[in-house]
Design brief:
The complex is a heterodimer of chains A (310) and B (316).
Chain A: H1 12-18, H2 28-38, H3 40-57, H4 59-65, H5 98-134, H6 136-150, H7 154-165, H8 169-180, H9 182-195, H10 199-206, H11 211-219, H12 224-248, H13 259-263, H14 269-274, H15 276-304
Helix pairs in contact in A: 2-15, 3-5, 3-15, 5-6, 5-8, 5-9, 5-12, 5-15, 6-9, 7-8, 10-11, 12-15
Chain B: H1 2-28, H2 45-55, H3 61-73, H4 87-122, H5 127-141, H6 144-158, H7 176-210, H8 213-220, H9 225-263, H10 268-278, H11 281-309
Classes of the chains: A mainly alpha (310), B mainly alpha (316).
Chain lengths: 310, 316
């Protein structure tokens, strides 16, 4: 599927207007948006996601205005307190307000996921584009590298990298990027192998466009649809991975809260068995976020490529 | 087929080389001295230096890699820096436990997911279909370890039906039934996520196949619906599932790390966590290589199963 370029003035567009029609002038983005909005589950997912993003972005403002607790502020008389008016979701083992940390946690979890996915999608697409466009030994080299990286036990090696380089946000992102770029690279390369033979690419080459121009201006935009779908669904995957690593203590380190490292409290037997208010909310937040992202991703896939609709 | 197998096995060699080089670089890119634990606090620094030099700690990385490779090929996986136990002994005691856990989770996921997916596809838009699709959607969105924690909370704490963790009841002699009893919670919660994915795939794959002409032909010649669905359609419907099986292996093995940690299941995952927190490099190297090998072999098996499921696919 190609993004429709605006029709040259004075041709089909005017023709349609003369007959009182305007369907032909609707842009690609508008068509996609219209299809997406028709999907009720996707719309619901997008709405939930919007609320979650707003809550995360505005976490400092909201918590200050309502509860008034700081992210790491300890309330010494209320350690491991059950839910109350003072602490609606109770407090953790250091007397910090769980609800406040839950809101801040979303900031970190969503931020990391978004950064990671954007970085490796861009990296992977460029690598895949170069491999697919040039072919030959470049392609061979890249694909063997892809084979190697895809043979790694993902979570295990991510854990090893983070453990060796030291736990922390940057190292977590580095590890996830290093292990994830092959998926978009494979996808873009595959698309490029067939796009390379298409007339519009040949035309671009015939008018003397440089490889760089052909790759980035003519070919890459044609692979956007599957990339967007992939990136959306991958954000959900990265949130889950970050949560797993943080739960094990090799992701984001306290006092910075993420939904994953808040679940670490459940490693304490007393918390797991008697204080569900400490670990169920962050788990539910991950669940809710991932589910809405999956709804949005499915909706985007159907909207961007109706042929794939199941 | 035989020649294809040989070629695929030969192709595994460069990939394994690549994998081992990358893992070696990562493991050895550590700042500081991994052998610091090996020496007591009273050891003379000069003696320590000399010993490290003898061990080849200061050699260039490529030389260290070649040495590691030679040793590994000859069956020596090194020693745990922490306990001094040969790594191979540790692996021997842990590998079976991990294979029992992942194997039963995998089989459980498949055995439940395929019939569920097929039933859901044959009754598209019925209440069964809606239930299955919503549950499958929730299953792929649920962080599987959170699911495991909830399972422990409900089925081991609130209503203590199953043991909370461990592989056998401590202090009792080994009994198979006891181990299976301990296996229920970890294996089902590990299976949950993959099951949801497999069921979704089976459903969409079967929906596509059931619309094809040859299925109509089979029905038209009067075959019972059961035969049409399970014999004619399912065989083709399985082909995309096989790809998915191969692709899901890395996450399945990755999942064991977190599940073994939650359920204190003494397998490779727990060994990894111990090794990571103690920076035990020989173990980390071996564990990573072991799982990489499993992933590669798993993908090979998936490719072979293709040919079994679909005789049109011929490998030459």
């Amino acid at each position: 599927m190609q993004p429709a370029t605006p029709l040259p003035p004075g041709t089909a567009e005017q023709e349609l207007h003369r007959h009182g029609l305007s369907a032909g002038t609707r842009s690609w983005a508008a068509t996609v948006l219209r299809r997406f909005v028709r999907n009720r589950m996707a719309l619901l997912g997008a709405a939930i996601l919007l609320v979650l993003v707003l809550l995360s972005v505005l976490a400092p403002v909201i918590t200050q205005a309502t509860l008034g607790w700081g992210r790491d502020e300890m309330d010494f008389q209320y350690i491991l307190a059950p839910p109350s008016a003072r602490h609606p979701l109770g407090t953790d083992s250091l007397g910090r307000d769980t609800l406040t940390r839950l809101l801040y946690g979303g900031r970190v979890s969503l931020g990391i996921a978004l950064t990671t996915v954007v970085v490796y999608m861009v990296l992977g697409s460029v690598v895949g584009a170069v491999a697919g466009y040039f072919g030959g030994w470049v392609d061979n080299l890249v694909m063997r590298l892809v084979d190697v990286v895809q043979s790694f036990p993902f979570l295990l090696l991510a854990l090893t990298i983070v453990a060796i380089r030291g736990p922390g946000v940057e190292n977590l992102v580095v590890a996830l990027v290093l292990l994830s770029w092959p998926t978009p690279a494979r996808l873009v390369r595959g698309e490029f192998l067939s796009l390379r033979e298409r007339e519009f690419v040949e035309a671009a080459r015939a008018v003397g466009a440089r490889a760089q121009q052909i790759i980035f201006r003519h070919m890459l935009p044609n692979t956007l649809a599957p990339l967007i779908v992939n990136a959306t669904l991958d954000i959900a995957g990265v949130i889950l991975t970050e949560a797993s690593l943080s739960y094990l203590g090799f992701g984001v380190q306290i006092p910075v809260p993420t939904w994953g490292n808040m679940l670490t409290e459940a490693q304490n037997l007393a918390v797991l068995t008697r204080m569900p208010w400490l670990w169920i909310p962050p788990g539910l937040m991950i669940f809710l976020t991932v589910m809405s992202i999956n709804f949005v991703g499915d909706g985007l896939r159907d909207a961007l490529d109706p042929r794939l609709k199941q | 087929m035989g020649r294809y197998l040989v070629r695929r096995l030969l192709q595994m060699i460069p990939i394994l080389f690549g994998v081992s080089i990358v893992i070696f670089i990562i493991v050895h890119s550590t700042p500081g001295n991994p052998y610091a634990y090996m020496f007591g606090p009273k050891v003379d620094p000069a003696v320590k230096e000399k010993r490290l030099r003898e061990m080849g700690f200061y050699d260039p990385l490529p030389i260290q890699y070649v040495r590691w490779l030679k040793q590994t090929v000859s069956g020596n996986l090194g020693y745990s820096v922490h306990s001094g136990v040969p790594v191979i002994d540790l692996l021997k005691s842990r590998i079976p436990n991990t294979l029992i856990l992942t194997g039963s989770a995998f089989v459980l996921a498949l055995v439940l997911a395929i019939p569920i997916g097929v039933i859901s596809a044959t009754r598209q838009y019925s209440w069964i279909d809606y239930t299955v699709t919503s549950f499958a959607f929730m299953g792929i969105s649920l962080p599987s370890f959170f699911g495991a924690l909830v399972a422990v909370y409900l089925l081991a704490v609130k209503w203590p039906v199953f043991p909370m963790n461990g592989i056998t009841t401590p202090g009792e002699p080994f009994r198979l039934t006891d181990m299976l009893y301990h296996l229920v919670l970890p294996a089902t919660s590990l299976a949950l996520r993959d099951m949801a994915g497999f069921a979704r795939y089976t459903r969409s794959s079967m929906l596509e196949i059931l619309r094809q002409d040859y299925v109509r032909t089979a029905r038209a010649k009067g075959l019972p619906e059961r035969i049409v669905v399970y014999k004619h359609a399912l065989r083709n419907g399985m082909i995309p599932i096989i790809t998915l099986l191969g692709l899901s292996l890395p996450t399945l093995f990755g999942g064991t790390i977190i599940f073994e940690s939650i359920f204190a299941w003494p397998g490779m995952g727990l060994l990894t966590i111990e090794a990571v927190s103690r920076r035990d490099y020989a173990i980390l190297m071996s564990v990573n290589m072991f799982f990489a090998l499993l992933v590669i072999i798993g993908n090979l098996i998936a490719d072979i199963l293709y040919a079994v499921a679909d005789p049109r696919i011929r490998y030459a």
